[in-house]
Amino acid sequence: MVKIREKLNGYYNYTVILTYLGMLFGFTGIVYVTEGQYSLAFICLMIAGVCDMFDGAVAATRQRDINEKWYGIQIDSLSDLVCFGILPAFIT
């Protein structure tokens, strides 16, 4: 019997949790910038950086199939764009 790992909106496992957290901090930082709270936005940027620093190490702890790896690569790229492209542009 074959397990079906695909869900409605992608592949879910613990290896992308830090990526999701980093992206959440990126979006939160963007909201803080629009409210004029630049120090909180900068803190969100630093926390997103810490999450990005360790998400690859966490992803390497589990064997994943090619679809899960591809999904992780794509969601990490999106997170990097939000956290280190859009958020710093909003801060400056």
Automatic annotation (TrEMBL):
GO cellular component: membrane
GO molecular function: phosphotransferase activity, for other substituted phosphate groups
TM annotation in the entry: 12-32, 38-58
GO biological process, one term: phospholipid biosynthetic process
Keywords assigned by UniProt, alphabetized: Membrane, Transferase, Transmembrane, Transmembrane helix
Source domain of life: Bacteria
Name of the featured protein: CDP-alcohol phosphatidyltransferase
